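Lab notes, practical 5.
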Amino acid sequence: MRRNCTIGVLGLLTVAFSAANAQPRASDGELRRRAMFGAQLAEVTSDVRARQKIADTGGVALVQIFPGTSAADAQFKAGDVMLAVDGTRLTGIPMFLDRMSKARAGDALNIAFVRDGVRLEQRATMKEMPREKGEGYDVVYGSVTSNGARLRTIVTRPSTAGRHPAVLLLQGGHTCFAIDTPVGQPAAFTWIASDLTRHGYVTMRVERPGCGDSEGGPLRDVGFDRELGGYKQALHALARFDFVDTGNVFLFGHSMGGMFAPLIALELPVRGIAVYGSGAGTWFEAVFEQRRRLASLDGTKPNEIDREITDQARFWSALLIERKTPSEILARNPELRRLGWVVDDKYVGDRHYTFHYEVADKNFTDAWTKVAAARLPTSAAANPVSPRVLTMWGASDWLVDRASSAWIAEVINRTTPGMGRFVVLDSIDHNFFRTASTEESYRIFAPPAAGAAAPARLFNPIILETLRAWLNEMPAMPERVRDSSGP
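Output from the prediction step:
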């Protein structure tokens, strides 16, 4: 089956603990943390049904209970089979994870289950997902409000006194996931935040609406411009901290985060911008050209590639250029349904079709040109300088090509020579994994065959070394006068 993964997808999922697709909640008091049930889950086999005397289908088996969690406090045991939550029958693990995604710390759930063939019910008071902790630095959970929804922010700050340069981290992909990974292997931005903070930088991450702890979802109904507004509010908040040197605030954008970056900087000037695995072309180019690269990796037969690319072009041209709705496109060309892009007649991939309209309306090359032409005041007496831009590309990246990434630095240097830099990083793919080639990267990205073990995913620290080296060589700027408008 064709894999429909648009630019910068990060396949992050906290299996058996919680999902990250929060629903809107009343905006009063502190933003509550998402809940963690705390068990390893499994589908209910026929043997388990027979042993537990379960006649109906569905249910979720508990394989292991983790100490100190909601499941442990509610005295669940390995071998129990959950049948329903708050009176709603569980059809399987996805339904349970979806229910958990809506739960917050302090919520009480009534769970019907079977133990040793006896049907029971237990009330479980949900405990919050653990929070990240820094070794030698502070981690602060907070929030910003954008479009009436509170979005989770996580700030890391050095433990030393004084003001520090700061980096706002703009996440890649456009799917729903939490920005922290306090359980299991750390995600990329956790590595980046930790490394920069241990080297003297403040960092901030912000969740998308409806993801993790954040309000304002579901994400698939959130437009590009509304998501952009959340990042702008985060940058405003970052600049107001009294431990941030507002003359030295930077953006780091991964994948789609790199597309948000110049749009943010046009309104809220920053000292510099670094991007990884991003581009400055049109959205049509970004998605369509990715299709050909994917076709060379996903098993499409060579003699079928032209037909595949033609059909992709017909769909995306109708959507982004002719501005047809998915329903109109499929009504006119029902054979394009096989591409698998359209869900419920209004979602393309993981987002509402109007999200793609808004991205397609953006002139990213023009935005980068304006960023390069901007002048940042260093002080009342000093001459203004231009923001500096670093664009990085991994040699194993198949989601974004080298030319698209290099174009950003070229645009910068055509406008203000010497302010842009393009760097190719070896043995690293789009998602910061250590891979020797695009083929190896795709094997890691694609789901394993039934019964096969998932390939190892090792974070490549070359991204940390390159980003930090660029930040450290940045000429120091005197702190500018701060105001309520941001950096």
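Observations recorded by the TA: The chain has 14 helices and 19 strands. Confidence is low (pLDDT under 50) at residues 1-27, 481-487.
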